[in-house]
What does this fold into?
Amino acid sequence: MKTNPLSTFVAAACCALLAFSCASKQETVTNKLTTPGNPYLPLWEHIPDGEPYVFEDPDNPGKQRVYIYGSHDDLITMYCGRDQVVWSAPVEDLTQWRYDGTILVVDKNAKGEPFDSAQTADVLFAPDVTMTTDSTGKKTYWLFPNDQTGYRNGLIAKSDRPDGPFEVCNWNAEDPNKVDGGTLTLLKSTLPRCVP
It folds into this structure.
């Protein structure tokens, strides 16, 4: 049987590399950031359209945190979800992400009653958030959750903290299942009612 010299050389090189790798001491790698995708989200979390905002950490005045707001894609049969959550990290170390929890669920009307007998919450799409500071220095965080349910798509929620919880502030005075603010004109007239 005739042997190909190139095949013999390749086989010998592979055996030598294998023997060397088995004999070498294994190093322990302690790198905190090892994922090639979204490094701040575990595999069970799905916020595909997260938007980062930098706000002061209410638990650590003077320090800034990055807060990620987005749709919470946890439904199997459709996009988005029935709640909105937030994740945050100190701006100095974006490997230290923490789950700050659910910030908004719209499953009850202005009177605290479920919308339907199944107590189904509205599907909330990608939100937007902003912050205002009044003349005394008090901060208010405004969440616009993009609720596409009829009569609630102009929903506005507010909180004293960037990590919530957020409360709806523009319920319609005549119909507890609706909110005011579905158009820009209504929104301008609604905002004063949300501000104390």
